[in-house]
Write a structure and sequence with these properties.
With about 575 residues, the chain is mainly alpha-helical. The chain has 32 helices and no strands.
Length: about 575
């Protein structure tokens, strides 16, 4: 009898793949202590497993579930659930999990299975009831973590509004407990946010913060709701930032302010962050990048150098990416100062894990400034991409380089290779339109730009590009003006689109309007091409000394700008 029992145990383990370690204190022929499995039960399990293996899943499931009921063994209940799930029978899996719950009421595992199976069956309201029961039965020490995980558990529910409703109801008792209120309101707010119920999400964030002003959850939720423009959320965050918060939270707030085009407020937060946490490397990185955007190059140099010193020994991917970004920008700053050797030294410190195409582009820019054009082209050509995306960007960068160096036909051939793999890629199409303009194939250029408008109707740049091209050629000016106005509507703060608006006004004979718009665009973004247009308007108004001054500034910005050089030559101006 004992040898038959041992054979049954071994065969069952082999069939289920669940070989368990023998207890060292037990004699070889002694059955496990407190075991409810006798020979008959083992044979029942073996028969059930064999039925499953031979394709009679329903019969096998019934045998294993019956054995689980008789023995009240959690492992057998779990096996029954697994058999049903592998057979894609959600109802049977739910039956097994619910039976498990009835037979062993205090076990937490069946609650998790019941919740997940109900969600998989899209029985969302029942899942909410199961969630409430599960939370009530969890140990107090585990409830907060479970509440935080709820949005992830409900993420696959398609009816987001219903999911938010049932979760809020399920958390009713948790909201009555002071230590769980902030976490519960945060989870409720996340559910409403994901359902695009933004007023309810904002209300939840405010209630969560009111219940515990030190809790991080409501503040993190508030960061994600800043783009709604809620003054209450902004006030909540502003007040919270006046006290001690984690460096990651203050960094997140600064990033949100940058995205909201509030750079001065972001700068103040980053300065406070780096003062309070001088060893927090990401703070120095964002501060340096923002200082670059604000034209504070010396301060940016100091901030980014500090980031490099803190991050140079980091090994994880995020640290290496931050280090690469800092070194790239430091190289650009050195290049702008004319310190080309120093610029190259910064690039030499970039980690081996860096994007090879991006690094090649920077090296090519340095070589180009030194007049080593053929070497620059070779650096781009010889870059070794390691992904399809990098290969696409390599071809794009090479086309840009060829276009900017009067090799438009070669650029066009390069783009054809890339577009063969991605005919609707917006970046490639934009570059193709610029190449076609260089080749003076204007009808084809217009067709490409109109395709871009169809692909990305909310992207201002295609409207601006076509409107500017028409204006620059002095044709279809009313249509050009309408296209540029559409671009202004989509991107009202873009100085290059404002440049187009001023240029079409000049072409239409509205010189005073053109002067006002172009001067504002140049102040917002000093650029050689904008300088060319502003100078021409001033020249036409017989304000030639002002025009000369603007053009000279433009040459300092980019001495080889084609538009600027052509404008000065056409008007007979020699700097």
């Amino acid at each position: 009898m004992k040898s038959r029992l041992r054979f049954a145990v071994l065969l069952f383990c082999l069939l289920t793949g669940e070989v368990r370690a023998a207890q060292p204190s037990a004699a070889p022929d002694t059955p496990p202590a407190n075991s409810a499995l006798d020979a008959v039960m083992f044979y029942q399990l073996l028969l059930g497993e064999l039925q499953v293996r031979q394709g009679s899943v329903g019969a096998g499931f019934s045998l294993v579930l019956d054995a689980a009921r008789k023995t009240r063994d959690p492992a057998l209940f779990q096996r029954a659930v697994d058999i049903a799930l592998q057979a894609r029978s959600g109802d049977a899996a739910l039956q097994a999990a619910q039976t498990w719950k009835r037979e062993i009421p205090g076990a937490p595992e069946p609650n998790r299975y019941i919740l997940q199976i109900l969600l998989a069956l899209n029985r969302v309201e029942e899942a909410g009831q199961a969630l409430a029961i599960s939370l009530d039965e969890l140990p107090a020490s585990e409830r907060q973590g479970a509440i935080i995980s709820i949005p992830r558990v409900f993420a696959r529910v398609t009816d987001k509004a219903l999911a938010a409703k049932v979760v809020e109801k399920a958390l009713g008792r948790s909201l009555e407990q002071k230590n769980l209120q902030a976490t519960s309101w945060t989870t409720i707010g996340r559910m409403h946010r994901d359902a695009q119920q933004l007023p309810a999400a904002i209300e939840a964030a405010l209630k969560g913060h009111a219940s515990d002003s030190q809790a991080q959850g409501p503040l993190i939720l508030g960061l994600s709701l800043l783009p709604t423009g809620s003054s209450e959320i902004r006030q909540m965050l502003d007040e919270a930032m006046q006290g001690p918060v984690s460096p990651d939270l203050r960094l997140g707030y600064a990033r949100s302010l940058v995205a909201l085009q509030a750079p001065k407020e972001a700068l103040a937060q980053l300065q406070q962050l780096t003062l309070q946490h001088p060893a927090f490397a990401p703070g120095w990185l964002l501060l340096g990048l923002l200082q670059v955007d604000l034209g504070q190059a010396p301060q940016a140099q100091q901030s980014l150098t500090r980031h490099v010193a803190l991050a140079k020994d980091g090994t994880d991917a995020e640290q290496q990416a931050g280090l690469t970004e800092a070194l790239m920008v430091l190289s650009q700053l050195a290049q702008q100062r004319g310190e080309l050797e120093q610029a190259g030294q910064w690039l030499n410190q970039i980690p081996a894990s860096a994007d090879p195409v991006r690094l090649a582009i920077r090296r090519a820019e340095l070589l180009e400034q030194q007049g080593r054009l053929e070497e620059a082209r070779l650096v781009l050509t010889q870059a070794q991409p390691v992904s399809a995306e990098q290969a696409r960007r390599k071809l794009l960068a090479l086309s840009r380089w060829l276009r900017e160096h009067q090799q438009a036909q070669q650029a066009y051939t390069t783009l054809e290779q890339a577009l063969a793999q991605a005919s609707d890629d917006p970046d490639l199409l934009t570059e193709q339109s610029l190449v076609l303009e260089k080749l003076r194939r204007f009808d084809e250029m217009e067709a490409v730009l109109r395709k871009l408008m169809r692909l990305r109707p909310q992207d201002a740049h295609a409207y601006n590009a076509l409107g500017y091209s028409l204006a620059d050629r002095g044709i279809r000016l009313d249509e050009a003006h309408a296209l540029i106005l559409k671009a202004v509507e989509l991107a009202p703060q873009d100085p290059f689109i404002q440049d187009s608006l001023g240029w079409v006004a000049f072409r239409m004979g509205r010189r005073d309007e053109a002067l006002r718009v172009l001067r504002a665009a140049y102040q917002a973004r000093p650029d050689a091409e904008i300088a060319a247009h502003l100078g021409e308007v001033l020249w036409s108004l017989d304000r030639r000394s002002e025009a000369a001054s603007i053009w000279r500034e433009g040459l300092l910005l980019k001495a080889d700008n084609e538009t600027l050089i052509e404008t000065m030559k056409r008007l007979g101006f020699k700097p």
